[in-house]
Amino acid sequence: MFSEEDVSEYVSNRGSARFLGCAVRKLCKRELTAMTVELRKTWLIAILMVCVVRGASGMSAESTSPAARSGMMVQPREAWTTSRLRGTPTPPEAFRIVPAFPQIRFDHPTSLLEIPGTDRVLVTEMDGKIFTFSKAAAVAADLTVNLQNLAHEKVSLFAAVLHPLFQQNRFVYLCLVHPENGSHTRVSRFEMTHDAVPVIDPKSETVMITWPSGGHNAGCMRFGSDGLLYIATGDGSGPNPPDGLTTGQDVTDLLGSILRIDVDHPANGKNYSIPADNAFITHTTARPEIFAYGLRNPWKFGIDHQTGEVYVADNGWETWEMIYLVGNGTNCGWPVMEGRALLRSEVGVGPTPITPPIRDHHHSEANSVIGGPVYRGEKLKTLDGEFVYGDYITGTIWSVGRTADGSFVGRTLVDTDLRIVDFMEGAAGELYVLDYDLTGQIYELLPNNVEDLSADFPRLLSQTGIFKSVAPLQPAAGVVEYDVVVPQWTDGAVAQRFVAVPDHARIELASHNGVRGRYPEGTVFAKQLSIPDHDGNPTKPIETQILQFQNGVWNPYSYRWNDAGTDAELVSSVGMTRTVQWPAANAAGQFTERTWHTSAINECRLCHNAGPGFVLGFVGNQLTTLCPTTVSSTDQLESLLEQQVIATIPDDARSPVFQLVNPQDESLDLTDRARSYLHGNCSMCHHKGGNAIVSFFLTKDLSFEQMATNKGTNIGTFGMQQAKIIVPGDPFRSVLMYRMSKLGYARMPYVGSQVVDSHGISLIARWIGSLPVEPSTKLSDPLVIASLPATALASLERSGSNPETRTAAIQQLTSGTEGSLALMVRMHAGDLTPADRETVIETVRNASSDVRGLFDNFIPESLRKKTLGRTFEPSLVLSQTGDALRGRLIFFSDAARCRACHHTDELALSVGPTLREISKKYVHTSELLQEIVQPSQKVDDKFATWTILTKDGLVLNGLIESQSPSQVVLRLADRQKITIAATDIDELQKSTKSLMPDGVLADLTAQEASDLLVFIRSITEAAK
């Protein structure tokens, strides 16, 4: 038998009726077997009453899945047959991709080629393995060689190429990073056997050429129609600073170049010779192997075997990706130029003039271009003579070719979800595409025979077939509503989630974002976002987001609801912004204006991409709502299985390693809740292999040490001392804490959210504060007993303190970033009185942006300062009539950042030039504005920024005051001088980025910026 206590064990502290069905089913199964029918009925009624009484009070519209609300046994869903989401809103692309050999997958492959005289394909993997397989059988690949066994240590294998006379000499050339005598990049020649399943003889290695390895190695190789071997090398640097070795224009080394050598005629003690027509063969100091130079990381390139032309895809730095047509002696410009944009003008240009790219892509559409072949096959006639290339990050494939007048024109061939790493033109004209780590498979590019359905694509939500009715919202037959354990923060909007799988097909569910699920063609996920009422229930719909799987690609769309709430209209691919009325916090019945941004398609794909697996919420560990530990299953997963939405429940879905918990549930472990929150909101970018600029990882399965957060960043410290991404025990020196707390510049996430999550702030602050403090950590002042900020916080906690004391405490805390963070956390937690909140808002009104941005969330949008923001038209400022007196007041206030570094006359009191020097240098106001907006466009050597990475993980940026073999004295942006022992320095690099940050005018109005410029200009004029 069981009692009320048995039942309450299943539903206590859950706050959701979702557990009702699970509790009833499990308890009935365990206890009621021996009972009579009548007793069963009696106990079942009792159980239901207890569950309803104890569980119903915690139900909410977002957190309760409909399948669990009734407590009844779930029936298989009806077939979903009403979908009208076919095609795309725009005409289909000219090409498509299909798996070429569906049964064969590789582990991080890097290149592929065909073995002439056979039907076999050779594939290299990054860790040094090489495989071949038969195209006819295409069932499994055979190991050809494992280079790690040869090197006895880790290697990185970039590419393979076969000698033009391979069928006679069996020569295979490999490019790899080798550990011998210190890590370096080499090209080696090996011999392959004549066997039907060939192998490479590891003892046949002949090292041909080497160069220093580094962050950018490139490593692509091709034989040209001239029989010469062309080799790509990178600039040997990491991403920052750009061209850290300043080698791009230096032709005295092999870096950042396309090399051309003759491997058939060794000479001068080398295993190769220099072609007689190489551009620098007679240059006194240049390396004669160089064919073209000024490249950053030419990962892959292609050669037209009809014309001999060489097309290079070069990975850019922060803004551009480039395609170059290079000839003998071509200078592509890096790092003086990034494509067509001037970057490091202080670097001298090499011995030949700079050639611009024939095509370039802004980073809004490409991030890491991969070159392919110049297509000359018979199968895809429309591509004849065009250089085909793609992008590793976005998966888009383009081509560029010549028009009748000889000019170059590019076109998009297809958007894919692949991590493109290589292309290959097959002997029969096939054009193959190799995926790196989404599937590790080989795909074929084919003409797209998909019908153009763009005219019929649903422009209204009511036309999609997902919903039977949109007002009120009712899913169509076969469409199932579901919930997730950790919902992503959506600026306070209430979310309802639906999954629609065509007919009776089922999803092969992924257990977590680290693995891939399988989805039937036409699968759709929908998320409805609504404005909540004061109780958190959905009221007025704002937006419905759609993720549709079609032809192997996930397509995101958004529908914007009309003001009447009767239907929603498809939003264009560039997104849109609108003003909505939002319930005012702590003021029932009152509303405030808020800007609501519907994301562009490219913004959606910043999260929904191959890295985290495209589908973020509908994975096993997000669908797991645990019953008590005595029960081995979860009701939502069981429900989805019973409804035949999913085929099976993955074993790892319940694994403690990947388990997520509800961040709102105060009864659960604090660390589990915080890590789950970060996983659900941040790990789509911050995961191993993610696209975040700062490399740290927030997936729930990692240990704290594996998160790599105990380090500084180059993004900035925002006024915090000794800041790191996370400082254990100190949230007020943790950059993660700061950036998720701020609006405007430096806000994280930088897309998808314009409102700070108060609960999330409180949770992460508590978690960071609970972490063990490292012995070497100097805690921030708000955490130091008897410090002024700590005393100020204590006075605000005392209800009896007088208004003057409380105002003084607020002024003390908001005088710096660390105190402001401590105060801000308390405001989000609701620990301040309404009067204190008003005092805070008034106090920070003219504070520095580092401080003011932490409190903008508490100010209605209509009352916030209308500032320039990070990007603006210069004419907006230049059209104003500036006033020098007002500008002087701005300069000497905390509203502008200039005074922190620039004294009017005293160089010793400046970090960088004085205002007088600046005013003399820039005669016109427009030039001065340009310098402020783009401070890194040209930096004088004497004001160059140096970055020091210490061995304990600190990153320091400043000007070098002095340097000796034993120490470096660095002057920081706050004028502080710090001495670092040489033995404590892990890395010292000169940066091309100015110490003056971007966006210094972002928090000024156009008038204030104009006034400030006029004041700076007036300093020189007054001296005349």
Give the tally of β-strands: 42
Largest sheet: 6 strands, antiparallel
Low-confidence stretches: 1-71, 626-634
Strand order of the largest sheet: 30-31-32-33-34-35
Average pLDDT, rounded to a whole number, is 85
Within CATH, the superfamily of the largest domain carries the name TolB, C-terminal domain
State the helix count. 21
Bin the strand percentage. 15-25%
CATH architecture descriptor of the largest domain: 6 Propeller
Gyration radius, in Å? 32 Å
Number of structurally distinct domains? 5
Distance linking N and C termini: 99 Å
Give the SSE layout.
Layout: H1 4-11, H2 19-31, H3 37-55, H4 66-69, E1 95-99, E2 109-114, E3 120-125, E4 129-134, E5 142-146, H5 147-151, E6 156-162, H6 166-169, E7 171-178, E8 184-192, E9 200-212, E10 218-223, E11 229-233, E12 257-261, E13 290-293, E14 300-303, E15 310-314, E16 320-326, E17 330-331, E18 337-338, E19 341-342, E20 359-362, E21 369-374, E22 387-391, E23 396-402, E24 408-415, E25 420-425, E26 431-435, E27 442-447, E28 467-470, E29 473-475, E30 479-482, E31 494-500, E32 524-532, E33 538-550, E34 553-561, E35 568-570, E36 576-583, E37 591-598, H7 601-605, H8 635-642, H9 670-682, H10 735-741, H11 758-770, H12 788-797, H13 803-813, H14 817-828, H15 834-843, H16 849-852, H17 874-878, H18 884-891, H19 915-921, H20 925-933, E38 945-950, E39 955-963, E40 967-972, E41 977-981, E42 985-991, H21 1006-1023
Parallel strand pairs: 13-17
Antiparallel strand pairs: 1-27, 2-3, 3-4, 4-5, 6-7, 7-8, 8-9, 10-11, 11-12, 12-13, 14-15, 15-16, 16-20, 18-19, 21-22, 22-23, 23-24, 25-26, 26-27, 28-29, 30-31, 31-32, 32-33, 33-34, 34-35, 36-37, 38-39, 38-42, 39-40, 40-41
Helix pairs in contact: 1-2, 1-3, 2-3, 9-11, 12-13, 13-15, 18-21, 19-21
